UniProtKB/TrEMBL annotation:
Ribosomal protein keyword on record: no
This protein's name: Triosephosphate isomerase
Protein family: Belongs to the triosephosphate isomerase family.
Presence of keyword Cytoplasm: yes
Species name: Anaerotruncus massiliensis
Length: 252
């Protein structure tokens, strides 16, 4: 575990106008300045410029919540990885379950977006996770293993250093139902074994694998203490500076 870096990343989803974003970042900056883990905020496209300007010279990294796989073209409403990179954005969330559920994202489109993001020089936060019905059928590992393998298709060992995987059981996202620390660790460990099969044990040991799904100030410490859980991807609790800070402190 001490071979790798814990990262706490906020996923703001479709929240915060620019004045609201500014207020949250200003509040957060001094609170996480001494963090002993990586700190990232993934914000709506409309807040990227604000977030980049306000976090310049700080320990807070800025990410987007998605990107398209083409460099440019007739894709109304989409944003390319190159557009993000040019702004100075360093991270991008790919394959979030809300994109898979509501916007037709598939393992194949996730793979294409991962490719584009890595080509643009971004670090990818790749989300994988099973539905409740899949867990109940006992196929969690099969699903998560397949999502991981397809998404990493064509990713080189060198590029893997710019990949973070977030294990997010879909039944735990935004539901207040957190996976137990044991469940979270079990699947994170499985993902690491899948990655070891593809890239070797050294690469797998260096990979940051986060847990996500209703992580909050109260349950974070137990989750991030698990041997295969290297921080978290935080939705709801990333929208309030004290809550997000408490999670950062738990992972520090
Ligand atoms: C997420 O959006 O990635 C997430 C984990 O959300 P929440 O923390 O609100 O469950």
């Amino acid at each position: 575990k001490n071979l790798r870096k814990a990262v706490i990343a906020g996923n703001w989803k479709m929240n915060k106008t620019r004045p609201e974003a500014k207020a949250l970042i200003e509040e957060l900056k001094p609170m996480v300045a001494d963090a002993g883990c990586g700190v990232v905020i993934c914000v709506p496209y409309t807040n990227l410029e604000t977030a980049l300007a306000l976090t310049e010279g700080t320990n807070i990294g800025v990410g987007a919540e998605n990107c398209h796989w083409e460099k440019s073209g007739a894709f109304t409403g989409e944003i390319s990885a190159d557009m993000l990179a040019e702004m100075g954005v360093k991270y991008v969330v790919i394959g979030h379950s809300e994109r898979r559920q509501y916007f037709g994202e598939t393992d194949e489109t996730v793979q294409k977006r991962v490719r584009a993001a890595l080509d643009a020089g971004l670090t990818v936060i790749l989300c994988v996770g099973e539905l409740l019905a899949q867990r109940e059928q006992g196929i969690t590992e099969e699903i998560v293993g397949l999502q991981t393998k397809v998404a990493l298709g064509g990713v080189s060992a060198e590029e893997l250093k710019r990949v973070i995987i977030a294990y997010e059981p879909v039944w735990a996202i935004g539901t207040g139902k957190t996976a137990t620390a044991g469940q979270a660790n079990e699947v994170c460990r499985y993902i690491r074994a899948v990655v070891a099969g593809l890239y070797g044990q050294m690469a797998a040991d260096g990979l940051t694998i986060q847990y996500g799904g209703s992580m909050n100030a109260k349950n974070a410490a137990e989750l991030v203490a698990q041997p295969d859980v290297d921080g978290g991807l935080i939705g709801g609790a990333s929208l309030k500076a004290p809550d997000f800070t408490a999670i950062v402190e738990a992972a520090s």
